[in-house]
Each structure stands twice: as structure tokens, then as C-alpha cells.
Amino acid sequence: MSASVAWLKNDVINFETTSGSGHKVVIDSAQTLGAKPMELILMGLGGCASYDVVSILQKSRQAIDDVRCEVSAKRADAIPAVFTDIHLHFVVTGKNIKEAQVAKAIDLSAEKYCSASKMLADGGVNITHDYQIIESAQ
After folding, report:
1. How far apart (Å, rounded) are the C-alpha atoms in residues 93 and 75?
2. Are residues 105 and 75 both part of a single domain?
3. What pLDDT is attached to residue 29?
4. Are residues 79 and 114 in the same domain?
5. Any coiled-coil ranges, and where (predicted)?
6. Which of 37, 42, 40, 67 is nearest to 127 (CA)?
């Protein structure tokens, strides 16, 4: 994997980043053009965990219509203001979703599959999870 970061050289300090696969994201501490760097970490964690949860639920033949992950975090008061606690709240929508399957999918993601979660947890971040299941109207 690789990425490049290029300063946009405008009135605020922001950067255009490009992933090795060619996708671009703007990083901006003033939040005028893009997300803050630490927000991107939360977004990456939520995306990594959500990918796992959807994949596992599909493989277990759960009739999911939607999966959302709402990520919240607390940071240390001192510099560097690292994350101390991160909470992932999954909202799974579908027909006759089995609660045990959702719990298992989230546990497997956290403990085995999600590289971002494992890396942050091993670095001392307290990561917690919970979920809500919504029965689909369709």
C-alpha cells in the first residue's frame, strides 16, 4: 500500500491525498475543504469494521438491507491528543435478522478481521461496540 500527500498551498493548511489505487481525499484542519486527519482514522475504522460485518452477515445468509456504523471517540487532553476510547454503534436493518449472528459478526470483526480495529486496540485504545437491529418494512 502507498499514499501521497500534497499541500494545496492556499490560505489554510490543507492537503490533497492520493491513495496508491488513485483515489483522492482532501485533509483539512480547518474543515473547509475536507475532513480532519483524526476523523479519517475514525472513518477508516468504521469502514473496515462495516465491511467485515456486512460480509459475515451475507455469508451467514442474513437478509440485510442496510448496515450503518456510527463511530464516536474521546481523545486525550494532552498533546499528542491520541484516541483513548472509540465506540462503534452498528445499525443493522433487514428481515428476520438473528441477533446472535449480528453479535458474532461484530465480535469476529473486532477480534480477528478488522486490521484497523486490531491496530488501534493493540496501541492502547479502548474500543467498544454495540448494535441495534431494525426490522425492515419490506
Report:
1. 30
2. yes
3. 80
4. yes
5. none
6. 42
89, 50 Cβ separation under 8 angstroms:
no
Domain span at residue 22 reads 1-35
| Contact yes or no for 82/121 (Cβ under 8 A) | no
Give the range among 23-27, 29-33, 69-73 with minimum mean pLDDT: 29-33
User: Residue 59 sits in a domain of what CATH number?
Assistant: 3.30.300.20
In a shared domain, residues 25 and 47: no
Whose CA is closest to 88, among 120, 61, 56?
A: 120
Give the tens place of pLDDT for each residue, 60-113.
999 999 999 999 999 999 999 999 999 999 999 999 999 999 999 999 999 999
Q: Is 48 helix (H, G, I), strand (E, B) or coil?
A: helix
